[in-house]
Write a structure and sequence with these properties.
The complex is a heterodimer of chains A (229) and B (54). Chain A contains 7 helices and no strands. Chain A has 229 residues and is mainly alpha-helical. In chain A, helix 1 runs antiparallel to helix 7, helix 2 packs antiparallel against helix 3 and helix 3 packs antiparallel against helix 4. In chain A, 38% of the residues are buried. The N and C termini of chain B lie far apart (80 Å). Chain B has a domain of 36 residues. The longest helix of chain B has 51 residues. Classes of the chains: A mainly alpha (229), B mainly alpha (54). The interface between A and B is medium-sized, with 36 and 28 residues.
Chain lengths: 229, 54
Amino acid sequence: MREKILYGVGLIAGLYLVRNLYQILLVLPDEVDQGAIYRILLFHVPAWITCFTAYFLAGAASVMYLIKKNLNYDTFCVAAVEVGLAFTLIGLATGSIWARIIWGIWWTWDARLTWALITCIIYSGYLMLRHAVDDPTARAKNSAVLCIFSYASVIITYKSIDWWRTQHPGAVLSIRTGGGRMDPAMESILFQNAVALLMLAAVMVAVRMRQEETQREVESLRRYAHAAA
Amino acid sequence: MDSRNFTYMFYGLGAAWLILALYVLTLVSRESRLRRELDSVKRMLEDRERAAKA
C-alpha cells in the first residue's frame, strides 16, 4: 500500500514536471533582455528551493536524532542530504550554463557561487564521513553534528546576495522583494515547478530511506553471522 | 534572437533532466544490489542453521 502511494506521488510529480516543461517551452514568451535562456532559471531556482528544503529538514532531523537517539531520524537525514545534493548539482549546472550566455563565462568566484560550491562540497563530505564510520550509533551521532553545522553554509549561501555585492543577480521572487521584479506568469510557473520538484524529492527521500533501512538490516545480519561464526 | 540562446537553453534543461535521470538510475541499481545482498546474507544464515542442526 505504502509502495503504491509512493509510486503514485512519483507519477503525479513526473506528469506535473512534463506539463510544466510544456508551459516553459511552448506557452511562456521570451524574456525581453535574456531571450530564451531565462527558461533555465525556471528549473535553476526550483532546484535550489528543493535542495535548501532538503538540507533544512536534514538539519532538523539531526537535532531530533541527538535528542531522541532514534535511528529513523538518521535514516531520514542521510536520505534528505543525498537527494538535496542531487538538486544542488542541478542548481550548479543550470546556473553555470545560464551564466555562459548572460555573463559570457561559465563560472566566477563571487560570494554566491563560491558558497554554493562550498555547500555542495560540505554535504558531499557528510556522505563520505558516513562511509568512514562502521558503528551505526557513532556514525549517526557524528554525522548529525556535522549536518547541523553544515546548515550554516546553506544560510550563508542563501543570504550572500544580501550580505555582499555579487555578480549573481539579487532577489527577484515576490516573497522576498514584494513583487515587481518578475513577470507573474513566469513566477507562477517557477513556483509550480518547485512544487513538482519537491514532490519528486519527497518520493526519492522515501525510496532512499527504505534503502538505508535495508542496508542497516544487511549490516546487522552480517554482524550476527560473524559473531555466531 | 541569438541562436546560441536556444542551444544553451536546451543544454541547461538537458543537464537538469540528465542529473535527475542519473540519480534515479543510481537509486534503482542500489535497490537491486541491496536486495541481492540481503537475500545472500539470509541464505547464508539459513544454511548455517541447517548445518548446525544436522
